[in-house]
Amino acid sequence: MNGRKKVAVLISGRGSNMMSLIAAAMAPDYPAEIALVLSNKPDAGGLQKAEDLGIPTAVVDHRDYKGDREAFERAVNEILVENGIEIVALAGFLRLLTPYLVNEWRDRMINIHPALLPSFKGLHTHERALDEGVKLHGATVHFVSPGMDDGPIIAQGAVPVLDDDTPDALAARVLAVEHQIYPRALELVVTGKAKVKGHRVATSVDTSESAANTLIFP
Ligand code: GRF
C-alpha cells in the first residue's frame, strides 16, 4: 500500500509478537506493512500463522551455515534487500547477531526484550526478576546495537510483580504488555518520531496523557 514502510519480522518461534505487529498493520491508517516474515527455524510456529494470513515468508536455516554467522546473516540480508525491506523488527529471533548485520541495519532494526533493560539482559528474565525480588518488571523495545540486548530504548511497559507470581504467570503478564508496546514502538520508528540521539531515543510525541495514566511509556 502506498506510503507504508515495508517491515520484515524475524522470528524463531511461536510468533505472538509478530502477530501483534501483523494485527496492528491491518488497520488502514497504520504506517507500516508487514511485508515479510523470516525465520532461522523451518519449524517456527509463527511461519504458518503468517502464511495463513497471506504474508510472504522465508526461511534461512542457520544450521546450513555451519557456525559461519556472517554467511548466515549475508543470506538473510540478501532476502531483506530483495524484498525492499526498510525496517527490521526482531520478535523472538534467537540468534546473536554479528556487527555485520547490525551495521547494515543501524537505526533501522528494533528488538523486543522481556525485561526492563538494562536489567536482565539475556535469557530466563522472569525467573531472574523473581529471584532478585524486584517489584516492577516489564518489557523493552530498543534499537539494536552490537551488544546483546543493547541499544537505545524506544519504549517500555511495566507490570507489578505479585507475591505469588511464578515465572509463567509473570511471563504471561509481561507478554500482554509486549503486545501493546511493540506495535506502538514500531509506529514511532516508521513515522520518524523515534530518533536516536546518542544512547537515547527522542520521541516527538506528547506523552503527558499516557505518562499520567499508564505504565507504558511513551
Ligand atoms: C518474547 O517474550 C520476546 O520478548 C522475546 O522472545 C519471546 C518471543 O515470543 N524476545 P513470541 O515468539 O513473540 O511469542
Name a few traits of the molecule.
about 220 residues; alpha/beta; globular; eight-stranded mixed beta sheet
What does this entry look like structurally?
A hairpin with a 2-residue loop joins strand 8 and strand 9 (200-203). By secondary structure, the protein is an alpha/beta fold. The protein is built from 7 helices and 10 strands. Helix 1 packs parallel to helix 6 (167-190). It is globular, with a radius of gyration of 17 Å. The longest helix has 24 residues, at 167-190. It has an 8-stranded mixed β-sheet, with helices on both faces. A two-stranded antiparallel sheet has the order 8-9. The structure holds 5-O-phosphono-beta-D-ribofuranosylamine. 5-O-phosphono-beta-D-ribofuranosylamine binds next to helix 1, strand 5 and helix 6. 5-O-phosphono-beta-D-ribofuranosylamine is lined by residues 11, 13-18, 91-92, 112-114, 175, 178.
Give the SSE layout.
Elements: E1 5-11, H1 16-25, E2 32-39, H2 45-52, E3 57-59, H3 69-82, E4 87-90, H4 99-104, E5 109-113, H5 125-132, E6 136-143, E7 153-160, H6 167-190, E8 194-197, E9 200-203, H7 208-213, E10 216-217
Parallel strand pairs: 1-2, 1-4, 2-3, 4-5
Antiparallel strand pairs: 5-6, 6-7, 7-10, 8-9
Helix pairs in contact: 1-6
Bound molecules: 5-O-phosphono-beta-D-ribofuranosylamine.
Task: Give the structure's gist in a few sentences.
The chain is 35% helix and 24% strand. The protein has 218 residues and is α/β, with parallel strands linked by helices. The strands form 2 sheets. An 8-stranded mixed sheet has the order 3-2-1-4-5-6-7-10, with helices on both faces. A two-stranded antiparallel sheet has the order 8-9.
